[in-house]
Predict the structure.
Amino acid sequence: MLCRYLYNKMTDAISENYATQELEANDVMFMDTTTFVNKSIPDASNDDEDSNIKPCIGMEFECIEKVKEFYNSFAKKNGFGVRVRSSKPKITVLVCCNEGQRKEKSCANEETVDNNATQMKRKCSTLRSGCQASLVVSRGTTESSWIIRSFNNVHNHVLLSPKSVSHMRCHKKMSVAAKNLVEKFSEEGLPTGKVAAIFNNGDSSFSNRDCWNHSRNLRTKNLDVGDAQAVFLYCKRKQLEDPNFFYSIQLDDDSRMANFFWVDARSRVAYQQFGDSITFDTTYKTNKYSMPFAPFTGVNNHYQSILFGCALIQDESEISFIWLFEKWLEAMGGKKPISIITDQDIAMGAAIKKVFPDTRHRLCLWHIRSKFPIKLAHIYHKKSVFKRDLKRCIRDSSSIQNFETEWQGLIDEYKLTDNGWLRDLYNIRESWIPIYNISTFFAGMNTTQRSESINAFFNSFVNARTTLQEFVMKFEKANESRLSAERKEDYESRHKFCILSTGSKLEEHAAFVYTRNIFGKFQDELREINKFTKQKIRRDGSRYVYQVSNCYDVRDAFTVDVDLDSKIANCTCQLYEFMGILCKHILVIFQAKGVVQIPDHFILQRWTKYANRGIEVCPAENNFDGQSTTTKFLRRMHAQQQASVLVDLAEESEELYKFIILELGNTCKSAIAMKTNVHLGDEIPVLQSNVNHTDISEQVNNEAPQLTIGDPHISQTKGRKKEGEKVSQNCRFKSGLEVSFNKSSVKRKTCQLCGELGHYRTTCKKKKLCD
């Protein structure tokens, strides 16, 4: 207690002595203390009022923040800046920003030049000029109040103009509205620096850098618990909002995130209608950890790309792909796609064979064709017809036999028999040549372009410094943007009328049934029928076989087998099997035989205007009993699918209708009786994990929020740097071509005077010595 008393007395004495010295050394205004005792100065946020009031001895303020606001407002009006020189429990000293002298760092050595780029110092300037202007305050009459003890307003430098003073750090201030707009710009992927231009209007109250700093600070604040942990908590919150939101996180041995998969409820429902053909690609790696982004992409009824879930994976190994495909299949209720298109990745192909053994796997045609200019550069770029012949062989072969003949002709003509790369391609021709895959439904897709278009669209929302949490949140924003485009197409297709051009009844019926974009593709086929002639080959009752040939292209000739009674037809071009719309060859026969409507069995539900009507997810059921809402969701979808089959059968005849109604009534009674007697709980599935890995999914117990997940390692995918090589956390990995280009084009700093690295002639120390 004695030490405390002595300390307080000494502090008061020093404060009074300091104030007396300041008053004697400088001619400042002195006013009686009693004039300002218990008198509060108006709020310093009102700059116009407070800046006209000069600080005086004895002014009392409610708190130290009020003192700083008042003095800062006075300084801004008078053209100088303010900073805190010292802050103690009973006394605080505010000084001009030009107070003091710059201290030379001990490591600086002006006689030598460090050639190491990492040790180079940045050129900078200083405000320090030894200015003595200051404001000293100490504790007042109450515990929280502060009184001005000393005020010196003499400066040894030029005071700034109102426009210039706003560049000083202490006078830069972002309003709440500006901060909110910065946060909104950041969420939408817009340049946050533009906010300064919107608010300042010629005044520099804050700069672009301040906007970027605020956005960075906000990201840092959101990641206080760790990046991967923040993603986990975000997913838990999303699941509380929507119990049908599905996610799964795989951890490595160090409890760090290894793989992460997530999908929203709408995508899960959409997959049940449009999940017959998908594309899968992992070439996009723009995030802080360089983790490959793996979207599952399909086609909706407007022929737009639609997402069926996505993942961030640690590596492109077979084990990671198997884990991802199994989790995706679990989220989709076990329904496997008819076909899938990927790039030429061995590990991915092996995983697809194990998880989707009955799915037709096809390689991206564009990726393979893009390698021809590299692998066959000696003939591909010359002025020859090789490029045209190759395209015709790959894309325009009318049959497998025709392709085999033309391929062998190319090999012989251009002497490519010994080319090993072409031999390997030929051995896997069934997985990439179109003629081998036209009998399988691919929704008209030949490449992974839809996955890459998703990547390109998403690229406007993220960059190489995007954290995992930002990635997931901005992905949600990007997905909402695509959903808006889908709703716009719904409006265009349902409430506007397509322009007819052929006068055909088939065209009129197609415009009524199909969406706008699918009708456009059907219309393109219908417009071509005038170029074709038909020749009857044989007839068997109501069944006809025709040869339909293009008058201008002898290669465009196909056989159509049609039954005029049942309107069942098939064409050897197999466009309907591949894309789901009638080809021009069948339309030639239908038009000639007076068929006025597209037969029902030729109208795929997925291409119709109202195919996505049931995709809008209803509000999730409240899960009061703690049961698994996800299994409820999957059971509901499966039951609806089975019920829709019964509804379709009931329309066909009166007997089927009565039988189905009777059986459904009996089933309902039995189910109600079972519900009252037996409690049907939702089972929690056992999570299957890979060796030395742990899975965290939505089906976890109540202790899940207590889990701590570490941030993932930087991914070392194909073509990336190995362990031991220095990799920056914020760098963007470049291709080999880009790296070699940068090495050859970017020159290091070299002085032309002394020949040393790290500086130029203008800053050379030897030049100064010579001068």
Q: What stands out?
A: The chain has a mean pLDDT of 77. DSSP finds 27 helices and 17 strands in the chain. The longest strand covers residues 305-313. Residues 102 and 125 are 10 Å apart (CA to CA).
